[in-house]
Amino acid sequence: MSRILYKYLDINGAKLMLGNLNLQFTNASQLNDPFDCHPKLIDYSHVPKHKLQGWIPEEWWIKKEELDALNLRNDTWLCSLSKVNDSLLMWSHYCYNHKGVCIGLDMDKVMESVPPMFGTTFLKPLVIEVQYQDIIERPSAYRPTEDMFSYQWRTKAKDWSYEQEVRLVIPRPSFMYAAFTPEQAKHPKETWDVREIHHYMPLKGECFESIYFGVNTEPTIKEKIIQYAREKLNPQINLYQMRVDENGFRLRAEVI
Question: Is the pLDDT of residue 162 over 90?
Answer without folding.
Answer: yes
